[in-house]
Amino acid sequence: xxxxxxxxxxxxxxxxxxxxxxxxxxxxxxxxxxxxxxxxxxxxxxxxxxxxxxxxxxxxxxxxxxxxxxxx
Length: 72
What we know:
With 72 residues, this protein is mostly beta strands. It is 0% helix and 40% strand. The strands form three sheets. The chain has a two-stranded antiparallel ribbon. Strands 2-3 form a two-stranded antiparallel ribbon. A two-stranded antiparallel sheet has the order 5-6.
């Protein structure tokens, strides 16, 4: 059963970045990136929860469980 608001249960998803990025723009290695504004003029963490994902691999052992996903 899927929760109606999956981001409100368990660990919050801050991917792909924590906090806010002013005006949704940043520069890294001489390249400028523009992110979607979703908090006024700023980009804020957590937009990935509404984006499509593919499960690449999942494993479970007595020691724990892992899942590897791909953001599409």
